[in-house]
Amino acid sequence: MVKGIIGKKVGMTQLFDESGKVIPVTVIEAGPCTVVQKKTVESDGYQAVQLGFGEVSAKKVNKAAAGHFKKANVAPKKTLREFRLDDVSAMNVGDILKADVFAAGDKVDVAGVSKGKGYQGVIKRFGQHRLRESHGTGPVARHAGSMGAISNPSRVFPGKRLPGHMGYVRVTVQNLTVVKVDTENNLIAVKGAVPGSKGTIITLANSVKA
């Protein structure tokens, strides 16, 4: 069964396995999430549930969103995400999903918005190397280099790697392993790093490759 939940990145720490080896993990506050909407093949053409995460004041919600939450008879939520499932018959609007939807050993894909790096040059942005600082390079050792030919084609080809905005894009890290689930505190420890800084809203779902 396909599973999914919304969470918030708490930070990184380390755990130890039975043999004493260190496992670097990211701690995620997963849920509780409320089912705000249920989509079926008959009504929408596919099966999915919309989950809400995080409380928000009713006066901070616009009229359209307020009507959406009122129809579902649930308190306004700060974050909404949709998860396509194979079977939604067992889930109903108003149900609460917690961290125990996943168990230790599960493979998950974690998606979130990466850290913003601002305006960066080609060395940091694309990993290009510096020019040789010998005769003639001048003060341009970190520049992008040649833009292209002169008379033919007399233009810069699309896709040329140039300086620009780096980071702050949606990133999915695939095939991470759930190391530990703390059902009492709604925490999930995932092996490795996940996108974003502390406090970033992320989604966990079954790995599409595992």
Automatic annotation (TrEMBL):
Entry's Gene Ontology cellular component terms: ribosome
InterPro entries xref list: Ribosomal_uL3, Ribosomal_uL3_bac/org-type, Ribosomal_uL3_CS, Transl_B-barrel_sf
Keywords: Ribonucleoprotein, Ribosomal protein, RNA-binding, rRNA-binding
Pfam families attached to this UniProt entry: Ribosomal_L3
Statement: the UniProt record of this protein carries the keyword RNA-binding: yes
HAMAP family: Ribosomal_uL3_B (MF_01325_B)
Subunit structure: Part of the 50S ribosomal subunit. Forms a cluster with proteins L14 and L19.
Designated name of the protein: Large ribosomal subunit protein uL3
Lineage, opening ranks: Bacteria, Bacillati, Bacillota, Clostridia, Eubacteriales
Gene: rplC
